[in-house]
Every structure is written in C-alpha cells, then in structure tokens.
Design goal:
alpha/beta; inorganic pyrophosphatase (n-terminal core); Diaminopimelate Epimerase, Chain A, domain 1; six-stranded mixed sheet; 14 helices; globular
C-alpha cells in the first residue's frame, strides 16, 4: 500500500531531484491536470521537474498554468530522452502500462534507471513501479494526486495553480461530477480546491465553452451518422477521415461525442469509431451505464481497456470491417446488455 511507503517517498523528496512526469498518449484533462499539478507541487520543493507528454493535446487544455513548459516527445525526442536518462524519479500519471505512452516514450521509460512512481485509477496495472498508488474506485488521477499531497502532509502547499490543475482533471473525468465514481469525498476535495483558488466558473468556460464553428458542424455530422440497435440497447457513431477533413478536424474536436449516443433513452452501451489515416487505425471510444464493463469488452475485442463505464481501444482494420466486427460481436452480450 502506498500509505506504508509514504515515509520512504518523503525521504526521497526531501532533497532536490531530477523528476520526469509523464501522462498517457493523447492526454486528456485528467492526464494534463494531474501532471501539471504534480509539477507545480514538486517545484515548491526546488525539484528539477519536467512534464513530458507523448504527443500533442487539445487547445482547450493549453491555458493550464505552466502549460508552456510541457515538452512533447513526438516533436522533441532527443531532449526528452536526455531528461528521462537523467531522471532520479519518474512519475507515470493516469496510465499503468508503458505502452500507453506510445512505443518510443514507453521504451525510454522502461529502460530508465530512475525510481518509478505510479499514480493511476485504471484497471489491471502492470508491475513496473517501485511506488504504486493504484485505485480503480477513484474518480480521477487528479483526486488521487490531491490525496497523495495530503498523505505527504502538504495540503497547505496547494496554491491556486495546483488547485486549478486538479479541478480540471476531476471535472473532466467525472463528466462534470455526474459519473458513478463521483463520491461525497470528491465533492469535498472540489470544495477545498475552490477554497484554495480554483475558479470553477472560469475553468468550466475554458474547457467547455470554446467550440469552433467547424467543431459544431462535425458534431452535426456525427449525429447524422448515429445508429441505434434498440434490441441490444446499443448506439454507435462513425466518423471517416474524409468527414474529419471536411470539417477541419483538430485534436480534441471529438471529445465527448460518444456521450451523446449514451444519452439516448434506453441505451446502456455506446461507441464511436473514428478513422485515423495517418496512424492507419480506427480509434474506438466506449461508454456504458450500470454494470456493463466496456473495459472488458475493449480488452477482449479492440486492444484497449480503461474503466468499467469508460474505455478506449483501436482497430487496425478499415472502418467498415471494424463496424461489421462490432455489430457481429454484440449478440454475445445480449444478456448482459438486457440486465
């Protein structure tokens, strides 16, 4: 348990160290919020800290405090590898297997001699970290970072910048506090973050009220492509590369689209399939209500995983073949989907 290891971690952090903090590939609000929050916390103690993101992330996250300090591995591999080679401590946040950071960065971390610390709430973690704080019941990695700082006895060190970063991750990963993992403790944490300087209204506006005209047009196309299989309580959306190009797709534009399918009355399982010609894959995002595990579904069929009610995956087949596979698999789950 991480609590039993806290004295060792406090000793580690008692003198300045070279610290590298890494989120997963295609980082979201929880990934960037948790890494930047931890970055700000470590800087208070004069650690030489750097956040290395595997690849670029949506513009609606780039207002976060000290976002400009983040290094992108895809576009700056030499400098990033040097930081990883020199790292005394390597923090992996919001993922629990090296491959989730991409092959290049994953390999660099795996061979790093730095002491590894994991903070994550996804299922079935790999066993690579000396210090592992893994809890699938948590709403978000940001809530876990708050707990981690509390375990270290440093809640008084949380300033407005740390509070803002943590609020972003908790808000986005809980679907604005409506998903089942949102607990009374989550709300207590959020209340404290507001007390410490997180401006909840401004944060919400910065994340959600930044739609471009082309993104709303793309959403319209996604809704046109929405299909429903009522007897299996399933709905799915497709977006081809041509459709993405037509509406000038930018990273992050499809964030949340799958939730529109899940919001349909009577639907318990929703999916979106997005073609990515550059990577030659179909990106798959899955959502569910109740006990139907999209984590298990994704692991079994789409090379992915995540949480019980939210998971991701990928297909290396073309879009039509992927959809045909999805539809052919569904009858196997009819009983689970009907419960």
């Amino acid at each position: 348990m991480i609590t039993a290891q806290i004295p060792e971690i406090k000793t580690l952090l008692s003198t300045p160290k070279n610290c590298v903090i890494v989120p997963h590939k295609n980082p979201d609000g929880d990934a960037m919020g948790s890494t930047l929050a931890l970055y700000h916390y470590l800087k208070i103690y004069n650690h030489n800290a750097v956040v290395i993101a595997p690849n670029d992330y949506p513009d609606f996250l780039k207002w976060l405090p000290d976002n400009d300090s983040v290094l992108i591995f895809d576009t700056n591999q030499e400098a990033c590898q040097a930081f990883i080679e020199d790292a005394d401590l390597l923090f992996t946040l919001d993922f629990n297997a090296f491959h989730r950071a991409g092959d290049g960065l994953g390999n660099a971390m795996e061979t790093s001699k730095g002491i590894k610390l994991m903070i994550d709430h996804h299922q079935q973690p790999d066993d690579y970290a000396t210090y592992m704080y893994s809890d699938v019941s948590m709403s978000s990695t940001c809530e876990m970072v708050y707990n981690f700082i509390e375990m270290l006895g440093d809640l008084d060190k949380i300033d407005a910048e740390i509070a803002t970063c943590l609020y972003v991750g908790i808000m986005t990963d809980t679907g604005s506090f409506r998903f089942p993992a949102t607990t009374s403790r989550t709300h207590q944490v959020i209340g404290d973050l507001i007390e410490k300087g997180a401006n909840n209204s401004e944060i919400h506006n910065n994340i959600y009220d930044t739609n471009s005209y082309s993104r709303l047009q793309l959403l319209g196309k996604a809704m046109q492509n929405l299909k429903v299989i009522p007897e299996l309580k399933t709905a799915y959306i497709t977006l081809s590369q041509d459709e993405l190009d037509e509406y000038h797709f930018k990273k992050g534009d499809t964030e949340g689209f799958v939730n529109y399918a899940l919001s349909l009355k009577g639907i318990v399982f929703a999916a979106i399939f997005i073609e990515n010609k550059q990577e030659d894959i179909i990106k798959v995002s899955l959502r569910s209500k109740g006990d139907f595990s999209v984590n298990e579904f994704s692991r079994a069929h789409f090379n992915g995983g995540g949480h019980t009610n939210a998971a991701g995956g990928r297909s290396e087949s073309d879009l039509k073949t992927t959809i045909d596979k999805f539809i052919s698999i569904l009858p196997q789950y009819k009983q689970q989907l009907s419960q």
